[in-house]
Amino acid sequence: MKSHTVGQAVVIGSGLGGLAAAVRLRAAEWRVTVLEALDQPGGRARVFHRDGFTFDAGPTVITAPHLIAELFELVGRDPRDYFSLVPVDPFYRIHFDDGSTFDYTGNEERLLAQIARFEPRDVDGYRRLARLAERIFETGFTQLADKPFHRLSDMLRVLPAMLRLQSWRSVHGLVARHIRDPRLRQALTFEPLLVGGDPFRSPAIYLLIHWLERKWGVHFALGGTTSIVHALVRLLEELGVDIRLGTPVEEIVVERGRAVAVRTSCGERVPAALVVSNADPSFVYTRLIGAEHRARHTDRAVSRVRQSMSLFVGYFGARRTWPTLAHHTILLGPRYRGLLDDVFRRGVLADDFSLYLHAPTRTDPSLAPPGCETLYVLSPVPNTRARIDWEREGEPYFARIRDALERRLLPGLGGALATSFQLTPVDFERTLRSADGAAFGPEPLLTQSAWFRYHNRSPDVQGLYFVGAGTHPGGGVPGVLCSAKVLDRLVPRAAVA
Ligand SMILES: Cc1cc2nc3c(=O)[nH]c(=O)nc-3n(C[C@H](O)[C@H](O)[C@H](O)COP(=O)(O)OP(=O)(O)OC[C@H]3O[C@@H](n4cnc5c(N)ncnc54)[C@H](O)[C@@H]3O)c2cc1C
Q1: Which of 191, 312, 403, 461 is the most exposed place for a label (fewest CB within 10 A)?
Q2: Helix (H) or strand (E) holding 175
Q3: Which of 36, 44, 61 to mutate to test the pocket of ligand 1 (most atoms within 8 A of CB)?
Q4: CA of 16, closest atom in ligand 1
Q5: Going by CA atoms, what residue is nearest to atom 12 of ligand 1?
């Protein structure tokens, strides 16, 4: 890297997408300042420390690990000097409401043996489905995820392939054509939920997540996902990037249609030749950019975007361990489609739930005091458009979830609690500044994917770019890392900008 750099870039937000964008901009010789509203980096991937327990706030399932490693390699570093990943097996242990369990693993032989246990005729169905998932992955991930999608021609180019791959069907619709057993249908369709999608409405293209997990595995970062955030921050500091925490941006200053600076909450104007926003695009367009500069993203257009579901996340530490617990557990309730309809369509906080339980101390005991277990439980819930009073509902909801966990999975939990706290959709809205308290940006529908999603290059304001879950390709750690990769094709090197 040259010792002198030309051009100042500002990155708004230090989520994984923002940190990855900062590395890529620095590698292209921009001077980079990252402005983060919160008092720690990572966004959804920040960390909470309570009573000796370490809780990753959000992402725990690390897939496509090369997307993280390549950020270090890009600037001549060995990622092994910065963080360590270990494979997790099974990927997920799924507990069905009838008491049966299914270990979703990357080992095809074990996977097929379990499928045969549920429904022997589904073994061939799964083989067909897996081949299809691989083809969808080759188009949807390999060819599209890290390419810009801001021209209609980009969309038209891929349309024939998407039609061939039956993208008009939903993930559930496609899986149900190959799999008979209702429990296996659930096990093979919950993955869109990982990026905020309803399996009954997310287009079949999201079946690529299945192949992405099969191909590269599911991993956990020793020390927690926060160790990846800290590795990226360390790298950026070594590269001379200025990361300013506790610095919310309140305005993107636009002159003659071009972003020229940002203004922070204390009134400071930070000049920029280039602004990359990792903040939610719905929030950025309506709250940070004057209406006179937005021909396309008017307040009305933004209000029509359908935001994804939100999440209730309960964190708790226990003064004991459950040695047979899997690292990642999916605990399914009595209803599947009905519950998803409550969350995504009806905006109802249901009495039943389907849960994801994270038990990182199964892999890395250092995340809790000796003999203790760190846990977090996540329940998909309606976003804040549903107007649920979380101030009132939050604690009783968490208590119901803990009861269910104690009954089905964690005997003795009630008497072993050492610490507990929660995040609700209100925290996503207020703390992370996400429209409607959505956990994953706009819902991944066909009409909100690729060209239809917020573009990585703003059509309204020159010199403004987006990375992160709200823009193409979408939510999830691989998605936001790919969104930063798209920048490589859109942003010139600083010297020629
Ligand atoms: C509970 C939970 C669990 C998840 N689990 C997984 C998982 O296991 N695997 C997976 O792949 N994905 C998972 N996801 C999804 C994944 O975490 C997210 O899609 C991804 O981390 C989002 O990254 P991002 O780049 O969009 O930035 P975000 O994490 O959304 O960060 C954006 C940052 O911008 C900052 N910001 C916003 N506005 C401003 C402003 N005006 N000025 C300055 N800063 C601002 C925010 O404070 C925040 O730090 C999970 C998500 C959640 C919520």
Answers
A1: 403
A2: helix 171-178
A3: 44
A4: 25
A5: 476
